[in-house]
Amino acid sequence: MNATLRHMDRTQWQATAVRFLDYNYRQMWDFGVACAERVGAASEHVAVEQDGEIIGLADVRIKRIPVIGTGIAYVNGGPLVRRGDGRDADRLSLCLHALVEEYATRRGMVLRVMAPINGGSWNEGQKAVFAEAGFAQSEATRPYRTFLLNIDRQPEEIRKNMAQKWRNGLNQSEKRGLAVRAGTDPALFREFCDLFSRFIERKQFEVDLTPPFYLRVQERASESDRFLITLVDLDGAVVAGHVASLLGDTSVYLLGASSDEGLKAKATYLLQWQAIQAARERGLKWYDLGGIDPEANPGVYHFKSGLGGQDVTAPGPLEYAAAGVRGTVVHWSEGAYRWLRRRSRQLS
């Protein structure tokens, strides 16, 4: 029997999403809605059902293109299917076919998916499922590459597998008398925002999703979905901060910042270790270090590599476009929009 789609409300979504091991911040109700709002899109939260059982979830972001009556259906960090019971690949296949039927075949949209990342064999296994369902690699955005650290081990073993320089930095930070505060209160997040503002002014760089954006999500989110903010104080002043999402079986490093005093005190080493400890206490298995780019940012790459994680690239972006002219028009329109957006930024 084929799988079918059913729309869900916020309460239903939050009660169901936590059952999946691949639940992640990109499929949080409030994060998806906020991302859709900032680009003039709509967020559709659907359950995939078969024989009355929910086998998967997908927050689908619908971005319509005027005049031609179609657009892009974007699934970021989904669909959620993984339960570790040996049926994950079957559930993914059924979910993909149901999503293709609704968004690509019936609505004539380009269906684009950035699948959730995971360690072990699943990360490679799901690529084969996407290929069998007719998806092809998209050039719309760069693939997500990161270090994944297995934290389902004793702390002593995790530290033993770190690079020597990294262990030395952590040891030094633990002797500097640094005070650590952690929690989900938006007030802590506002302190982090202040630190991050000074940080990017000093470093002269930009991020797509800023701390104020994540703060707005934090203020809307239920307690179980909220990000964990960790701050390090030295002599009563905040010198480093870290924001992480702890959902499913994977903690994700989202944002980090430090002052010159924090760098000297090796506070960033302590922050990463505190993030690992917090994730282990919640029973999580993996720590995603938030993306790497060896060419564009070799310093951050070198720092993150010292923790001893595995270099992994997530499947995607992957696309399915129904045959016909609509897919071509969607890609042309998207390319024109991206060019205009870059041009506007250059002129401003």
Model description:
The chain has about 350 residues and is of the alpha+beta class. The chain has two domains: about 5-140 and about 315-345, Gcn5-related N-acetyltransferase (GNAT) (Aminopeptidase), CATH 3.40.630.30; about 145-310, Aminopeptidase (3-Layer(aba) Sandwich), CATH 3.40.630. About 40% of the residues lie in helices and about 25% in strands. The chain has twelve helices and 14 strands. The chain has helices spanning about 10-15, 30-40, 90-105, 120-130, 155-160, 165-175, 185-205, 210-220, 260-265, 265-280, 300-305, 325-345, and strands at about 5, 40-50, 55-65, 70-75, 110-115, 135, 145-150, 180-185, 230-235, 235-245, 250-260, 285-290, 310-315, 320. The strands form two sheets. Strands 1-2-3-4-5-14-6 form a seven-stranded mixed beta sheet. A seven-stranded mixed beta sheet has the order 8-9-10-11-12-7-13, with helices on both faces. The longest helix has 23 residues, at about 325-345. The termini are far apart.
Topology of helices and strands:
Layout: E1 4-7, H1 10-17, H2 29-38, E2 42-50, E3 53-65, E4 70-76, H3 88-106, E5 110-114, H4 122-132, E6 136-137, E7 145-150, H5 155-160, H6 164-173, E8 179-183, H7 186-203, H8 211-220, E9 228-234, E10 237-247, E11 250-258, H9 260-264, H10 267-281, E12 286-288, H11 298-305, E13 310-313, E14 318-321, H12 325-347
Parallel strand pairs: 4-5, 11-12
Antiparallel strand pairs: 1-2, 2-3, 3-4, 5-14, 6-14, 7-12, 7-13, 8-9, 9-10, 10-11
Helix pairs in contact: 3-4, 6-10, 7-8
